[in-house]
Amino acid sequence: MNNSKLSKPKKISKMKKIMIAMAMVLTVITTNAFAGVTVRQEVLNAFKTEFTKATDVNWTVGDTYYKAAFTLNDQMLFAFYSLEGEFLALTRNISSLQLPLNLQKSLKNRRKGQWITDLFEVANGEGTAYYITLESADAKVVLKSIGGSDWTVYKKSNKS
User: Fold this and answer.
1) CA 96 → CA 23, 117, 120, 155, distances in Å?
2) Between the CA atoms of 44, 45, 46 and 47, what dihedral angle is there, to the nearest 10 degrees?
3) pLDDT < 50 stretches in the chain
4) Is the pTM of this model over 0.85?
5) Which helix (H) or strand (E) holds 67?
6) Cα–Cα distance between 136 and 144 in angstroms, integer?
């Protein structure tokens, strides 16, 4: 009977060690996720309020913004915030089949001899815009559509 009383404290002690080890691992993982990037608390609070179920969050910092790359509902998203924590925009890469139907049709008429190399959606306080990069053997053009209206040329360049 004395042996069973002595073995119980060892089990508790082992459990404490396991919990401490798990806490240390989680601390290292969390610290490494933000390694090298210091994000202001205002920005983190704004992000956590808006995207409570976000996972795999990675931050980068530009001259005038913070960018959070994260997963939400099995989709990779990018949120942009001002340095003060104001939400600027949310972007995601999409396929041409996810475009509004009128933009798909308009694109089909424009794409002769070109292929899509980039396509993303931008949502912000002003609405939704789409940017698509089309390339051919000797040229590259970026088209833009605001609010699902027709495409306009945003940028055009020749390949060298």
Assistant:
1) 44, 11, 9, 19
2) 50
3) 7-9, 15-34
4) no
5) strand 65-72
6) 18
